[in-house]
Design a protein that fits this description.
Elements lengths: L3 H5 L4 H7 L18 H21 L1 H11 L12 H20 L3 H26 L8 H31 L9 H9 L17 H26 L5 H4 L19 H30 L12 H12 L8 H25 L3
Helix pairs in contact: 3-6, 3-13, 4-5, 4-13, 6-7, 7-9, 9-11, 11-12, 11-13
Function: Mitochondrial transporter that mediates uptake of thiamine pyrophosphate (ThPP) into mitochondria.
InterPro entries: GDC-like (IPR002167), MCP (IPR002067), MCP_dom_sf (IPR023395), MCP_transmembrane (IPR018108)
Main location: mitochondrion
Length: about 350
């Protein structure tokens, strides 16, 4: 007789050995929530939003320093280029503004990241249901495409909040205590140009962000799914998959739940891959987002910014702060996917 656990775990050795000799409990009807229903959409959005907030909080100080480096903040340019510089930058921020300084702009980050992450994960689930209908369509190209579309949808929905968040993190003077409204007014009135309105200033760097989201989100979801497949391979299942009795979800149609370290590892791998392939466009985007703060306020295009970076620092200029990027994105993506998968189980989806 085949055990219930074996059916749900695709024949993994770990689950079969646990349940095969135990008496079968009465089969319980698993409640299925339609992915297009308001209930599922709401729960999925909340799970994604909570995951994003948890991940961003873990790396808040590094995120602040990375923005200062990428945007070439004059006060911190002397620290770029080494890990010791990162430590000194964090020390200087802490000595002048305390813990609050390390998390400057973090409230704006959470305001932005909750809807961003919520929309991203929700869009991924919805787009995936259309592009990948069954196991035969689980191809790398379809996974990459699904992730890219989800990332682009989330950026389109929340981009102005990202610009406000970056501007708040960029400010470094101890006496500067700009409110959301102050930042919004400043951005709105910064030389929008004769043919543009001030609203356009809230979309500085939007083009490279969208281009960068294609490889970033696409490779992130692709790498995570592939790493998940690897972790669930029969030869590793007994080490990586939770015993059937410890799983939150008993739904045999879902992939078996990974142990915490395995789930964190798949997210870390996804973060490393996505950061590597998309970083140059991220640097260009940061420069464009603070374009009204430095220089004469002239709105530089994506190509102009790239040329400026090339003239100033060559190829290295496109990778300034990459070490911090890895230190930030790898744990952030790891926590994000982990929190999302666990939140889905707790919320029953």
């Amino acid at each position: 007789m085949t055990s219930i656990a074996a059916q749900g775990d695709r024949g993994s050795p770990a689950s079969t050995s646990v349940d095969v000799n135990l008496p079968l409990e009465p089969r319980k009807q698993v409640k299925t929530i339609d992915k297009k229903s308001p209930e599922y959409i709401t729960r999925n959005f909340i799970a994604g939003g909570l995951a994003g907030c948890a991940a961003k909080t873990v790396v808040g100080p590094l995120d602040r320093v990375k923005i200062l480096f990428q945007a070439s903040n004059p006060q911190f340019q002397k620290y770029t280029g080494s890990w010791f510089g990162v430590v000194k930058a964090i020390r200087d921020i802490y000595s002048s503004a305390g813990t609050r300084g390390l998390f400057r702009g973090h409230s704006a980050t959470l305001v932005r990241i909750f809807p961003y992450a919520g929309v991203k994960f929700l869009a991924y689930e919805q787009v995936r249901a259309i592009i990948i209908r069954d196991a035969s369509q689980e191809t790398p190209l379809r996974r990459f495409t699904t992730g890219s579309i989800a990332g682009m949808i989330s950026v389109l929905a929340t981009y102005p909040l990202e610009v406000i968040r970056v501007r708040m993190a960029w400010e470094t003077k101890a006496h500067t205590r700009s409110s959301y409204l102050d930042i919004c007014r400043r951005i709105y009135h910064e030389n929008p140009g004769a043919s543009r309105t001030g609203i356009a200033n809230f979309f500085r760097g939007f083009t490279p962000t969208m281009w960068g989201m294609l490889p970033y989100a696409g490779s992130s979801f692709l790498a995570h799914d592939m790493a998940g497949d690897f972790m669930r391979h029969p030869s590793l299942a007994q080490y990586t998959i939770l015993p059937h009795s410890e799983r939150r979800s008993k739904d045999p149609r879902k992939p078996p739940q990974l142990k915490y370290w395995a789930e964190l590892s798949t997210g870390a791998f996804a973060g490393f891959v996505s950061q590597t392939v998309s970083y140059p466009l991220e640097v260009i985007r940061r420069r464009m987002q603070v374009g009204g703060v430095v220089g004469d306020g002239h709105r530089l295009g994506m190509v102009e910014v790239a040329r400026t970076i090339w003239r100033q620092a060559g190829v290295k200029g496109f990778y300034v702060g990459l070490g911090i990027g890895y230190a930030k994105v790898v744990p952030m993506t790891s926590v994000s996917f982990f929190a999302y998968e666990r939140a889905k189980y707790y919320l029953g989806i």
